[in-house]
Amino acid sequence: MAEIINMPRLSDTMEEGTVATWLKKVGDKIEEGDILAEIETDKATMEFESFHEGTLLHIGVQEGETTKVDELLAIIGDADEDVTAILSAAKAVSKNSDNDSASAVEKAGNENTSEPVEVDSLRKDEVPEGVIMVTMPRLSDTMEEGTVATWLKKVGDKIEEGDILAEIETDKATMEFESFNEGTLLYIGLDEGESAKVDALLAIIGPAGTSTSALVSDFAVASSDDKTESKAEAPKKEKVVISTERSDEKSHNQASIESANGRLFVSPLAKKMADEKGINLSQVQGSGENGRIVKRDVENFVPAAAVTNSSAPVAKFVPSGQENFDEVKHSQMRKVIAKRLGESKFTAPHYYLAVEFNMDNAIAFRQQFNSIPDTKISYNDIIVKACALALRQHPQVNSQWFDDRMRLNNHVHIGVAVAVEDGLVVPVVRFANEQSLPQIGAAVRDYAGRARKKKLTPQEMEGSTFTISNLGMFGIESFTSIINQPNSAILSVGNIIQKPVVKEGQIVVGNTMKLTLACDHRTVDGATGSMFLQTLKGYIENPVTMLV
């Protein structure tokens, strides 16, 4: 008897899941305990284990596709079992099906016969056999929308399983989007540079010659009205997009320039030469394939103003420079950073407490500590450890604000801000107060390295109770930061500088460091923040006390 496998609820807040990878294919023999697929939830990508034995008869959600919890994911049964009845009944169940309709699917699993579904009777959530509605994938845990950076296929191209369809820009990275289906690319729903919400229609793949007009209209993309409006209002402007053109015989990279005169195709070398020479490419006549501008066109280009009669009198010199600028579309990461920091700045009443610590003992302590073989700690590691110990004594600073309550955390998870190419990520050192300085140093170095390669997992960037932002390595003496909500505070750390200081009535050369604590006044009063900084000062100016 066939077993219906539905999309599991793999976290307490999960409402829908995305199939990241199928580890089994239709026809495979399944044993109890086999991993069927990797499912991406709202929190993590998790392995999904089979609790049934049999043959994988049907896959209902392709890799990269998303469906709601309890929707049909797969069917396992006997190798020769007919599942047509189950699939027909499953199509009759709406995405918001109640228990009665769900039981109808189970009931259909016990039947051996069914009538085929007529294509003419398909609803908007049904498509003809062999046609795949490709939607905007959720490529990161925080992704709400994606931007098509580059299409690597065009309408009419033959698509093989594993072909790269497009490069999709998320809030964290630009990632290749692979096709898990075969067929002909029938329709492209987004042009290069355009954005859409996750699950919006991206493309349609199916048998050559299939009409897509009804499929597109019935798909009912929620954002279609907004997209049309934004297109109507967008002014014409010049923008440069790097794309990849492919054909059956050859492939080459080229830059595509959109202007009021249409699209020009330019080789990367020609574009670079034009930029160096200050040549406006819209004035250059291309001699390459399809009017493509190549190296020789830039080399031989003569501005119209330069073609003059040599016998004419010399005119008074007039500067011929042109005003120009570059426009860069917001990346998804930059959009998310702007949204969250804006929410924090304009909802949390920030105030700032600035202090200056003597670092002479800390410098000596670090030198002695690093003299131990195979040991290396940084000043930032010392600050992380000191903050963790101080927070245990001042839980109000280690608190979090919510609309209906305040949470005083008994654990200390410190977020360490790491600058990446397109913004900022905050990996979390968990239970930092319980870790040694070398353990903290190893964790921070590992997180920072993987953050710059965009290899951090969602779990490694969640759950902080306090945040540290250090710009000292860039020579910044002091600065202020915006609180990483729902945390109540963030510490900004400057560089260590040598300056004249007074010790025992004498002016001597000392080493100092400035720190600024940004606090949410809803949870941390001025006196509370000040007492935290006094405790922190004791640890940093006498770091040996952290080892007691």
Overview of this structure, please?
The protein has 548 residues and is an alpha+beta fold. The protein has four domains: 3-117, OB fold (Dihydrolipoamide Acetyltransferase, E2P); 132-226, Beta Barrel (OB fold (Dihydrolipoamide Acetyltransferase, E2P)), CATH 2.40.50; 239-305, Irregular (Dihydrolipoamide Transferase); 332-547, Chloramphenicol acetyltransferase-like domain (Chloramphenicol Acetyltransferase). It contains eleven helices and 29 strands. It has helices at residues 84-91, 99-108, 213-219, 224-233, 268-277, 295-299, 332-347, 360-370, 379-393, 437-452, 526-541; strands at residues 3-6, 16-22, 29-30, 35-40, 45-49, 54-59, 66-68, 72-77, 132-135, 145-151, 158-159, 164-169, 174-178, 183-188, 195-197, 201-206, 239-246, 251-259, 262-266, 350-358, 399-402, 405-408, 414-416, 418-420, 423-425, 428-429, 466-470, 489-503, 506-520. The strands form eight sheets. It has a six-stranded mixed β-sheet. A hairpin with a 2-residue loop joins strand 21 (399-402) and strand 22. It starts with a strand and ends in a 7-residue tail after the last helix.
